[in-house]
Design brief:
single chain, mainly alpha, 15 helices
């Protein structure tokens, strides 16, 4: 009971932050407003104890459910269509991570191993653990990853607004439909009935737990997404969520991230603020260049390309995709593969470099 009360208190703080940022008109207010408010609470030492894993699990599963509604019988066609682009973007993310890490090394007093690991685009828990196994400074890695993550979430919206004005939209081709649109074919889908919504959370939790046990990165979200998508395909139905549900999920995700922003992390801010800012700009510039290359090589629109290569978090990009008119499923596939490639291959690149 105490855990629920403590969570409710932190959620209330996050909700007030959301209302403030919503009033200010900032992008993704549910996430950024809550992150701002709860981070202050945590740094001040008033973040109460509760079992955060349960709420983190449910929030990640909810994101998976919301993206999974995009899956239909054209999903496999869609995967085959974008597979080369996904591999190109994932390879580019590895290169951008290395360049970002080298910029940290040149601008800070951190060791080469710490800097290169801190340059990774994703996997905060995985990269911090890997850094400790390599004798690197975990606090520097955690700070850099969190700083770049927050910077990317904030900047993505404004970069998208700017670049969508500078780069012309591509005309859709009948022979080659845009990669971000999933062909509907002759699917005759109906909406979920009330009883179907009782089955949805069971399937989502089961899929999330399975992928988590299998050790798949971001497995809770991906497991829930694929299992709920499979359920919708089997039932030949589709489902929707209210905007308010998305805000609730973003607030809970912000509470989880804010748990890492402690007084110790803030203490290294004066020493690492310049390397953090410059390396974040380097990472953003690299991913924008990667997005432009993807735009030239494919039939995807520029907004989708930028979201697919953004160094921000998978969950946040999924919600931002809907806000900016891109397909959340496409961006989630790119982001998930980027995360998988970073976790699977980046440590080997670091070991080879060192």
């Amino acid at each position: 009971m105490d855990h629920l009360i403590n969570f409710s208190f932190v959620f209330l703080v996050g909700f007030l932050g959301f209302l403030l940022f919503l009033k200010l008109g900032t992008p993704v207010p549910g996430f950024l407003g809550s992150l701002f408010a709860v981070s202050i609470l945590n740094v001040a030492g008033y973040y109460p104890e509760f079992s955060i894993y349960i709420f983190s699990f449910l929030a990640q599963a909810a994101v998976g459910v919301m993206i999974g509604r995009q899956i239909n019988c054209g999903f496999l066609f869609h995967l085959r269509h974008i597979a080369p682009s996904v591999m190109f973007a994932s390879g580019g993310a590895l290169l951008v991570s290395l360049v970002t890490g080298l910029s940290i090394y040149l601008l800070s007093d951190a060791s080469l191993s710490t800097s290169v690991i801190a340059g990774a685009m994703g996997g905060i828990a995985e990269m911090t653990t890997f850094g400790m196994s390599m004798g690197a400074d975990p606090m520097v890695i955690l700070f850099m990853l969190l700083f770049r993550f927050i910077f990317a979430v904030i900047s993505s919206y404004w970069v998208l607004r700017l670049i969508s004005r500078l780069v012309p939209n591509k005309a859709a081709s009948a022979a080659h439909p845009p990669a971000h649109s999933i062909p509907a074919h002759s699917i005759n889908e109906s909406g979920f009935r009330v009883r179907d919504y009782f089955l949805l959370p069971v399937v989502a939790i089961a899929g999330g737990m399975l992928f988590r046990v299998l050790g798949v990165p971001n497995g809770i979200m991906l497991g829930a997404m694929l299992s709920c998508g499979a359920l919708a395909v089997c039932l030949r139905k589709t489902y929707q969520f209210e905007q308010s549900a998305r805000h609730v999920v973003l607030i809970v995700l912000a509470l989880v991230i804010a748990r890492h922003i402690t007084a110790d992390v803030v203490a290294v801010l004066p020493r690492l603020i310049v390397p953090g800012l410059v390396s974040s700009i380097v990472a953003l510039t690299g991913t924008v260049l990667l997005a432009l290359a993807l735009y030239k090589a494919t039939d995807m629109d520029i907004v989708t390309c930028v979201l697919c290569t953004s160094p921000a978090g998978l969950s946040q990009i999924a919600f931002l995709s809907e806000e900016m008119g891109a397909n959340p499923l496409t961006t989630s596939i790119f982001q998930a593969c980027r995360l998988l490639s970073i976790i699977a291959f980046y440590p080997w690149l670091v070991i080879a470099l060192l």
